[in-house]
Amino acid sequence: MDEIILLKLGELVLKGLNRRSFEDKLIGNARRRLKDLGQFRVYTKQSTMYVEPLEETCDMDGAWLAMSRLFGVVGLSRARACAKDKDALLACAKTYLDGRLRAAKTFKVESKRADKSFPMTSVELSRYVGGELDEAYPNLQVDVHHPELTVYLEVRDYAAYVHADPEPGAGGLPVGIGGRAVSLLSGGIDSPVASWMIAKRGIALELVHFFSYPYTSEQAKQKVLDLAKLLTPWCGHMVVHVVPFTAIQEELRRKCPEELFTVLMRRFMMRIAEQVAQRTGAGALVTGECLGQVASQTMEAMRATTAVCSLPILRPVVGMDKEEIVRIARKIGTFETSILPYEDCCTVFTPRHPRLRPVLGELECAEAALDVDGLVAAAVDGIERLRV
Questions:
Q1: What is the per-residue pLDDT for 354?
Q2: Number of domain units in the chain
Q3: pLDDT of 1 strictly over 60
Q4: So what's the pLDDT on residue 165?
Q5: Gyration radius (Cα) of the chain, Å
Q6: Which residue intervals define the domain THUMP in the entry (predicted)?
Q7: What are phi and psi of 386, to 5 degrees?
Q8: What CATH number is given to the structural domain containing 335?
């Protein structure tokens, strides 16, 4: 039998009566990720999900990469299936793991006997296969505490499987199981990381980007679309709602105090994002705000922007420092794109001395000079929706 990918489920196994719905969502997400890579059978059994190729032409390397980015999976292994027999398991270990067995200096064997009709206990099976491998490979010594290589044997309902040390999975919960949210995506480092972190908790995303042409360039817009594409292997397909924001910023510059410009702009962003959420059935907004990082991210400024929304605002990076955020950005592949030198709308008409601790009443008084509802409605009507 050919290779198979074994996926170890994470906190899904703790979900009690709801567990089946979590597993169904995970299977559906996996099948969508695999559909362009060949015909695969995907199913769960005993807290493990199986990705089994049904054709010789299946792209196993592509499937492995896709499954390594699948939220809801904590570990994954490429395994070889064989008959449920001790000597078949031994032979499979020798052929499938020969290169790794020859390269290692210490090892151990761990067995799991999910099929209780198998005639040997897990300890007996490990002892038998481990002893034979120790004899067959003079370079190996048994080390049950800190082995360089662990050989795993699993005897399950359909077959037995041999694999080596599993690699960590993406963790979290299946995307979509927790509902939908609207994430504000700029061209910076923080907002893609925030989007990724919320998707990891099972939230499907709609992305909103505010575009201020001609003050920001088409390259800046493309940069954001590229960031969205980099998130799709983790978050699934998404729609980017590109909001025309120039008219609002020009109106703010004409009629409002300069030192309040940044916070007033953020309040408009939240109003528009909430309108998008209402149209798409989303239940929350997501931002990349990090406490104290810039003038618009003080506690007072955050309170002022939150005041215009009825939906909860999720801020997953709010307590992180920049090094932590950059580390995640590098891990998920967005960092190099985020640092490309194309400005976003937040840099347009930046005040020389922004108000760090704005007073809510003062902001509302400044907005009284504006047609807030009309500006929001015009921006929402002009949204360009792009699927990535």
A1: 83
A2: 2
A3: no
A4: 84
A5: 26
A6: 61-166
A7: -125, 125
A8: 3.40.50.620
For tokens 């998130």, name the residue: 231
Do 146 and 205 lie in one domain? The reply is: no
Q: How many helices (H) and strands (E) does the chain have?
A: 14, 15
- Does the structure show a pLDDT above 90 at 65? yes
Question: pLDDT by residue (tens digit) across 178-226?
Answer: 999 999 999 999 999 999 999 999 999 999 999 999 988 899 999 999 9
Same domain, 199 and 148: no
Q: Is 135 helix (H, G, I), strand (E, B) or coil?
A: helix
Mean pLDDT, residues 338-351: 81
What is the pLDDT at residue 345?
74
Residues 266, 225 share a domain: yes
130: CATH:
3.30.2130.30
Binding-site positions read 184-185, 209-210, 266, 288, 297
| Residue 349 clears pLDDT 80, i.e. is over it | no
Packing angle, helices 246-255 and 261-280, rounded to 10: 150
Q: What is the mean pLDDT of the chain?
A: 94
Binding residues for ATP: 184-185, 209-210, 266, 288, 297
376 assigned to some structural domain: yes
- 175 part of a folded domain: no
Q: Which domain holds residue 195?
A: 180-387
The two beta strands, 73-82 and 40-45, are unpaired
One domain, residues 48 and 150: yes
**Domain end position, chosen among 128, 152, 170:** 170
Find the mean pLDDT for residues 46-61. Answer: 92
Give the Cα separation of 110 and 100 in Å (integer). 16
